[in-house]
Amino acid sequence: MSVDMNSQASDSNEDDFGPNSEEEEEEEVGEEEDQGDIADYYEGVASDVEQQGADAFDPEEYQFTCLSYRESQKVLSEDVNRVASTLKVSPAVAKLVLVHFQWRVSVILERYKSSSSQLLCEAQVQPSTCSSRLHVSTHSFQCGVCLQLVRKEALLALPCQHSFCKACWEQHCTVLVKDGVGVGISCMAQDCSLQMPEDFVLPLLHGDELKDKYRRYLFRDYVESHFQLQLCPGADCPMVIQVQEPRARRVQCSRCGEVFCFMCRQMYHAPTDCGTIRKWLTKCADDSETANYISAHTKDCPKCNICIEKNGGCNHMQCSKCKHDFCWMCLGDWKTHGSEYYECSRYKENPDIVNQSQQAQAREALKKYLFYFERWENHSKSLQLEAQTYQRIQEKIQERVMNNLGTWIDWQYLQNAAKLLAKCRYTLQYTYPYAYYMESGPRKKLFEYQQAQLEAEIENLSWKVERADSYERGDLENQMHIAEQRRRTLLKDFHDT
C-alpha cells in the first residue's frame, strides 16, 4: 500500500483530457471485470444481509456521481459564469476567485455583498489601492527583470501595474508550466503575489502542446481545489467524482473501478480518519520502529561502543569484541561492583547512564506498536488468502452449474458470503490503527469490545465459508447477517466521530 497521501494527476493521463475522452470511456466501461478479483466485495451482498428497522442503517452509505471530462467542465462553467456575472469580472478572473474560496459560490456571493474590493484583494486578483497608485507614479519604460529599455507597447502588466517586457513574461510562464504549474502563476515583481489569469498566460505560451499542457494543469487544479470534486486516482483515468457533502467515505470510479476515500484519495480506511491512517502508514514504512527496537533492547559497550543486545537474564555482560566485563544496568565495570542490581551504587552517580525508565518506556511503546502492527499485517495477509478462497468458490460454482447441479443464482449465496467476509475483514484491519492512536478510557474500552466481537464473528464466518459444504445455506446466511451487523454497529459508533 502506498504511503504517499497526496497523489495528484500526472502527465500520464494527459491524452484523456481531450475531445475524444468520452468515446474512450464508453469503450472501457463495457469491459468485463476479472471474476477472480474480490475487490468488488461491496457489490452484490446487500440483499443477503439486509436488516430491518434501525439495523438497516448503513453508516457507509454515501451519494456520489462519476463525471466525465466534459461533464466536469460543464459543472465548473456554471459556477464560473455565475460568479463572473455577479462580480462583473472576466471568467478567467472568476476562476481564480473560485479557486481561492474552494468553489464555495455562496460564500463568495455573501462576501461580495459586504465588500467587493476586499474580496478581490483577498483572492489576489486585484491589488490594494495604495500599492497600485504608488507604482503608477514611478512608471517607466524599463523592464523590471532584464532592465532593458523597451517601447511602451512591448511592456505588459497585471492590475498591479508591475510592467515587464513580453519576452520576460513568456519565459516566466513557460518555465512554470513546464514544471507542472497551472493555477498559481503570479506576478514576477518581488513581494507581489497577484495571480495571473489564464487569458493573460495563454497568449504568452508558444506552441499548441504547451498550451494544451497548461489547460490540463488548470483543469487539475480547478478540480482539486473544488470542495465537492475529486479526480479519480486510477491510472490514466480522467473521471471526476462529485459529492454534495465532502466526507471521508468510500467512492468508486464507474470507468476504471478504482475504490478510494473521497477526502484523501487513498485506499478506503474506515473507521480510521485520513490524518490517522497517514500517520500509521508512515510509521509502518519508515525506520522509526527499528530505532525503537534498538533503543529498547540494546546498549553500547562502555569501552569500545559496539552495539550489544541482551539475550539472557544475567546483568553481567561481556563484550564479544573487546571482552570488557560490565553491568547491563549501570554500564559500570563489573569488577568494581556487586552482581545484583540493588548493589549497583554507581547507577545513580553516573550522569551518562541511559535512564532506566526511558528504556522501559521505549520497550512498552514498541510492545504496543507490535501488538497492533501484527494484527494489521495478519488481516492483510488473510485478505489475500480469502481472495484465493473466492476464486475457488467461483470455480466450484462453475463446475456445479456445468454438471447441472443448479444455476448461478442457486449458488450465488456462496459468492456473496466470500465477498462479505472480505468486506468485514477489510474494516477490521483498519480498526487497529484507530485503536493504536486512541487515548485510554471508557470509549476505547467500548471500541475494543466491539472490535473483539467483530473479530470473533469474522473468524466464525471464515470457518464456515471455507467449509461451506458442511453447513446449510441458512446457517451460513445467518452468520453473514451477524458479522455484517457487528461491522455496521462499530462503524455507526466510531466512524467520523
UniProtKB/TrEMBL annotation:
Cellular component terms per the entry's GO annotation: nucleus
GO molecular function: ubiquitin protein ligase activity; zinc ion binding
Any matching Pfam family: UBA_ARIH2_N
Residue stretches of biased makeup (Acidic residues): 12-37
Stretch list, region Disordered: 1-45
Keywords: Metal-binding, Nucleus, Repeat, Transferase, Ubl conjugation pathway, Zinc, Zinc-finger
Residue ranges occupied by any RING-type domain in the UniProt entry: 139-348, 143-168, 304-344
UniProt main location, coarse: nucleus
Keyword Ligase carried by entry: no
Domain of life: Eukaryota
Catalyses which reaction(s): [E2 ubiquitin-conjugating enzyme]-S-ubiquitinyl-L-cysteine + [acceptor protein]-L-lysine = [E2 ubiquitin-conjugating enzyme]-L-cysteine + [acceptor protein]-N(6)-ubiquitinyl-L-lysine
Biological processes annotated in GO: protein ubiquitination
Record's keyword annotation contains Transferase: yes
Chain intervals with Polar residues compositional bias: 1-11
EC number: 2.3.2.31
Protein family: Belongs to the RBR family. Ariadne subfamily.
The protein's name: RBR-type E3 ubiquitin transferase
Source organism per UniProt: Scleropages formosus
Gene name tied to this protein: ARIH2
